TrEMBL record:
It is found in: Cell inner membrane; Membrane. It is a multi-pass membrane protein. Residues 112-183 form the Mechanosensitive ion channel MscS domain. Keywords: Cell inner membrane, Cell membrane, Ion channel, Ion transport, Membrane, Transmembrane, Transmembrane helix, Transport. Gene3D superfamilies: 1.10.287.1260, 2.30.30.60. Mechanosensitive channel that participates in the regulation of osmotic pressure changes within the cell, opening in response to stretch forces in the membrane lipid bilayer, without the need for other proteins. Contributes to normal resistance to hypoosmotic shock. Forms an ion channel of 1.0 nanosiemens conductance with a slight preference for anions. The keyword Calcium does not apply. InterPro entries: LSM_dom_sf, MscS_archaea/bacteria_type, MscS_beta-dom_sf, MscS_channel_2nd. Belongs to the MscS (TC 1.A.23) family. The chain crosses the membrane at residues 20-39, 60-81, 101-124. This is Small-conductance mechanosensitive channel. The lineage of its organism: Bacteria, Pseudomonadati, Pseudomonadota, Betaproteobacteria, Burkholderiales. PANTHER family: SMALL-CONDUCTANCE MECHANOSENSITIVE CHANNEL. Homoheptamer.
């Protein structure tokens, strides 16, 4: 492709060759921008299908799409700068600086990111849903934390421990905790008995 453009550049008159030097990079940048836009459209459709299949919450999907968008558009920007003639050394410096900042931010937000990933796993694996009664089992003979799931957000799962939403107690547990311990789901009569115990509790 480069040889074809160079031969065309040599064949054209000087005034047209100057315009070619401007037009070719502009077209390349436009194609890169279109490719990034198309890739994000495909990502939206793919994530939309996954959301419909597994019932992912909107806030989790929004965060995931923002992360994908940053990666796609930053990559497209660096590629476009390279096509516009920015030196490889400058691009490499910018990339390594961006990667360093990203790595520091990644490790600083590791707990939040791990909870976000575990939220996706909870929905994909159907570990439990809102309305289920679950218990996190402790080691040994200790009683576990249990309650009815009333909310699952990107960081926490909220369990109704006793009473109701107006007069009761709730537990907010990090989503990653459900993949570090055994989880017991209560079914049928066991759920009814648990509800009676909660209403009769303090």
């Amino acid at each position: 492709m480069r040889k074809l453009i160079q031969s065309l550049h040599d064949w054209l008159p000087v005034w047209a060759a100057d315009w070619l030097d401007i037009l070719v990079p502009a077209v390349e940048v436009a194609l890169i921008a279109f490719a990034a836009w198309l890739l994000m459209r495909l990502a939206h459709k793919l994530i939309g299908r996954v959301t419909q299949k597994y019932g992912l919450p909107v806030n989790v999907v929004s965060v995931f799409l923002r992360v994908v968008g940053v990666l796609v558009y930053v990559g497209a920007l660096l590629w476009a700068l390279e096509r516009l003639g920015v030196s490889g050394a400058v691009l490499w410096t910018a990339f390594t600086g961006f990667a360093t900042v990203g790595a520091v931010a990644f490790f600083a937000a590791w707990s939040v990111l791990s909870n976000l990933f575990c939220t996706l796993l909870i929905y994909i694996t159907k570990a439990f849903r809102i309305g289920d009664v679950v218990e996190l089992l402790e080691a040994g003979d200790k009683a576990g934390m249990k309650g009815r799931v009333v909310d699952i957000n990107p960081v926490y799962t909220t369990l109704l421990e006793s009473g109701d939403a107006q007069n009761g107690t709730t537990l907010q547990l990090p989503n990653s905790l459900f993949f570090q311990r055994a989880v017991r789901r209560w079914h049928g009569n066991a759920v009814v008995e648990l509800s009676v115990d909660q209403q009769g509790g303090p």
